[in-house]
Specification:
single chain, 367 residues, alpha/beta, nine-stranded parallel sheet, seven-stranded mixed sheet
Length: 367
């Protein structure tokens, strides 16, 4: 396949009118390497990498924690239709036997071609701080335990790429010491102060779960986890840019504070994404969704009802440069879970995960 005449997004953030060549689902260097000469005319369109959502619980009426293989396939189909070509289904805090069953479903969608590619699991809990549990059920929260993690990871075929940890809880530092070379440890759902957060970072935790949400705010005398993450050049931070979780001014300030290479846009979407207003479920709790805002009965925000493509477009509408928004939804998440050699840019040798979009970011085609 040949994609001709499109404005192709480059690794330096520029656009260049050029042709892209695809052979056996990979981007290749030139036309001589292409056996199928089918042409897609991308004149007048931008050609960008497929998006990578590393934090999403569900969509289209289904949730990863349903432990339903067919439901997971529906999520993957929806995500692909919305320009997300790589995906990490994300778990909630639930009993161990339920999590084992949930994680084992991931092996049943291997090779599923009709949806986004599963690149790993994001394990959000149960190693959280009850004081910042958000939509997680406090009764299922437990102490960080490497053996528990490894057992769950084994049930998934060792597919866990991210695990959220509250560094101020018992056993957290020991978990980081033992596990930081096996999985990306993400700090979050925590009341941790700067000192505790910085110690966790120094020990090997270089990712933050949905920055600002479920953590203490950045204060001038108590910068907390947000300030510690800012001071670590390696730390990648997730940002839910749905226009509800974070004010546009704070989105702009965060890109200025962290730079374009360290922000990972995520949807944190739940089953109501792509659905009508109504009552849904997340992690065993009732969630009401109205005009894309999802809340528990007590008013706590419970995930989002916006997909990652919508979040990327929101970032642009808030004044984030287009190149930075694209990087935050493609290159940065790929690097955060160690798959940038496979996907995340339109470079020869990588997967042909490609979106054709208009200048106004209307999604025209997913390849």
């Amino acid at each position: 396949m040949i994609i001709k005449n499109g404005e192709v997004f480059q690794e330096d953030g520029s656009f260049c009118v050029k042709d892209l060549y695809i052979e056996d689902h990979k981007i290749v260097a030139d036309e001589s390497m292409v056996s199928d000469k089918t042409v897609i005319d991308a004149s007048g369109l931008k050609v960008i990498p497929g998006l990578i959502d590393v934090h999403s619980h569900g969509a289209a009426g289904f949730d990863f924690c349903d432990a339903d293989v067919e439901g997971l396939k529906k999520i993957l189909e929806y995500e692909r239709s919305r320009g997300v070509t790589s995906y990490c289904p994300t778990s909630m805090t639930l009993p161990a036997e339920e999590l084992e069953k949930i994680f084992s479903t991931i092996k049943e969608v291997e090779g599923f071609k009709e949806g986004a590619s599963v690149r790993g699991i994001n394990m959000e809990g149960p190693f959280l701080d009850c004081g910042k549990k958000g939509a997680h059920v406090g009764g299922y929260i437990k102490q960080a335990d490497a053996g528990f993690f490894r057992k769950l990871n084994e049930s998934s075929g060792n597919m866990v790429k991210l695990v959220t940890l509250a560094p101020n809880t018992e056993g957290a530092m020991e978990f980081i010491d033992e596990m930081h070379d096996e999985v990306c440890i993400s700090l979050g759902h925590t009341k941790a102060d700067y000192k505790t957060s910085w110690e966790a970072i120094q020990r090997g935790a270089h990712h933050v779960t949905h920055l600002y949400n479920a953590m203490n705010p950045l204060a001038h005398r108590d910068p907390g986890l947000i300030g510690a993450a800012r001071d670590d050049d390696q730390c990648m931070v997730e940002l839910i840019c749905d226009g509800i979780h974070i004010h546009p001014s704070v989105v702009r300030a965060t890109f200025a504070m962290f730079g374009s290479e360290r922000i990972v846009l995520v949807s944190d979407s739940m089953r109501a994404t792509g659905m009508a207003n109504g009552t849904y479920e997340l992690g065993g709790q009732e969630v009401t969704v109205k005009d894309r805002k999802a809340t528990l009965k007590d008013g706590t925000i419970a995930g989002s009802a916006t997909d990652l493509y919508g979040c990327m477009c929101k970032a642009v509408s808030f004044g984030i440069p287009l190149c930075d928004a694209i990087f935050a939804a493609t290159r940065n998440p790929a690097k955060s879970i160690g798959i940038y050699e496979e996907t995340g840019s339109l470079t020869p040798g990588k997967e042909a995960d490609i979106l054709l979009v208009t200048d106004e970011l209307e999604l025209k085609q997913v390849i």
